[in-house]
Amino acid sequence: MLNPGECIYQIITDRFCEGNPGNRPPAELFSADSSNPRKYLGGDWEGIIARIGDGYLTGMGISAILISQPAENIHVCMDDEAGTASYHGYWPRDFLRHNPYFGSLDTFRALVNTAHEHGLKVIIDFTPNHTSPALELQPAYMENGALYRAGELVAAYSGDMERVFLHNGGTSFLNAEDSLYRNLYDLAGLDQMNPQADEFLREGIAYWLDQGVDGVRIDAAKHIPPGWLTSFAGFIHTRKPAYLFGEWFLEAHGRSQDNAAFANNSGMSLLHFMFTHAMRESFHGLRGFEAFADMLCESSGCYKHLFDQLIFLDNHDMSRFTQDSDPSLTDLALVLLLTSAGLPVVYYGTEQYMSGGDDPHNRAMMSSFSRETPAYRILAELNRLRARNLAIGYGSTELLHVNSKVLAFERRYRGNVALVLLNLEEREHVLPPLVTSLPQGTYSSILRDVFADCEVSPEAEGDIRNMVMAPRSAYVYTCESDSEEPASLHFYPKAAAPGSELIIQGRYLGDTGSLTVGGYAATVTSWKSDRIVAKVPAIPAGTHHIQGLRNGEKEFLLTEELTVWTGKLVTVRLVVKNILTEYDSQVFVTGNVYELGAWEVDRAAGPFYNHIVYRYPTWYCDISLPADCRIECKFLLRSDSGIVRWEQGVAHSWHTPPEGVSEMIVEWQE
After folding, report:
1. What is the CA 221 to chain-centroid distance, rounded?
2. Helix 328-338 vs helix 273-284: angle between axes, to the nearest 10 degrees?
3. From CA 551, how far away is CA 489, in angstroms rounded?
4. Average pLDDT of each block of 10 consecutive residues along the chain (670 residues)?
5. How far apart are CA 325 and CA 206, in angstroms?
6. CA 468 → CA 189, 330, 473, distances in Å?
7. If DSSP codes are grouped into helix, strand and coil, which group holds residue 132?
8. How much is the pTM?
9. Residues with catalytic function
10. Locate the CBM20 domain: which residues (predicted)?
């Protein structure tokens, strides 16, 4: 389990380091001289093990590695000009087998064990959205999107009699329904609401959790029905409190409402694309740091669990942040990344100033393992700061001075303070007087070995005057509290069913105590000064505060609330027939359980769709509901102006299955 005081390093396994040439794939899949970046280039798990062992990764102060999906991928090339292979891991064929071109299963286990021995967690990519490219009318194309279960064929895209896959054409990204229920490009989209697909995906992720991995990145989360994905997250957290986050891509200035609603209510964090776009606009765009300031305001209003969203400069799906014309901006951007609210993810090679445009040029083989670059040293210093100064991981953010090229802000948590100053100008900049929370004294920047130092001496009220910033410079001044008051900092997961494991991290929590969730006693299975492990009690579903009592005398309260589900979740496709609506009306449903809003209109589940799986006037929506539970519900129409019209008659009622997925079809009652 990770917390916001940590940092993740993202590795494309094939592009990081080759440890064993014997793992190389056949010649048609491999580029021996690395001249074809759409082929395998040789990176493997032994190479990652080597870079853990020699201290390269741990020297940066990172606490987790995110690696390519380890499951077996297809063994053929695309028939494009480059002969693209599945080096990236996103074209799986069997979730219960490993990718032999990355190494053996024993080597994967050795990677996990080696990482753990060196204090690193292992996060894997996972793709429940699709298998591999397929063309419905050409079954001989590549591997026909075939899905295997431990070597036995489950289904192929053409001739899919069991409807394991979606067969609704490719998405045009027109709207949410189009993105959820059509294929992503030419990839064979899995129908998660098919019982076979649902069972196999759960079996697949359980297999890798049992190998000891600590977290999961859900690829293409935006294109998977949120109701199913919420149940899937609940399944993972019931099995193991693995850190779980999804890729919900947002265009620059894209709508964040659905994105934030999912992050707030699903128990799954998301990659914070608003942050990424703001960083690019701040450092490479026209608006500068005003874009960053606007993003801070918007995201703090969107996300209930802001510190758990994952912030990053770039990744494998966008051009690299570093530009050959001005790599020094990467140093300054890393300072801002590592001192901002959120859990940072650093893309491999950023510390070596690797550059490149869109795929595949942003996925070149790792260029160097130098530990002397300014970027590497910045990562090492600021990751140490994140680990010790609570203001960075958990503190508030206050902007002190903003213009297009200069940014000054402060992070605060109790007596912990971090003052961060950045100057993108190619000349000196004199800051206006700043009022900070630094105690009176003299401070040097912790980045003085990378950027020119400038000591500051706050006055009694924290005032700093006459600060002259050097050209292209960054300064971080810090103060750590010596208080031993209990600090309950973070809990995980953010949403869980009763009986699930709940982990609380903090400082000075004592060696014994008691814990309550929503006023109900929780069974504690382990209590240490920095970590408490307990079971979510059987309590009414809803959002609840977590409170503790250290050694029977010192109370502590976590600021965020835990969402407790009614019970273990399953996914039900609710279908309602014969609803005739006005053009500005949408269909929702509410009912007797928390997951349906408990009869509250503002919390009703939906909206329903009516174009792809079913067509108007029939509406449908995939919703996570408590398993083995009597459900009562009614549908309602809500207009854009807020007018609500309920259906008539008595509530629909049925009993949910104990596991898996199901469908319930009813008639609208006029």
Report:
1. 9
2. 140
3. 18
4. 94 98 97 97 98 98 98 97 97 98 98 98 98 96 98 97 96 94 97 98 98 98 97 95 94 79 94 96 92 94 94 97 89 98 98 96 97 98 96 96 97 96 96 96 96 93 93 97 86 95 94 94 96 97 95 86 97 97 93 98 96 98 98 96 94 97 96
5. 46
6. 56, 22, 10
7. strand
8. 0.97
9. 219, 247
10. 564-670
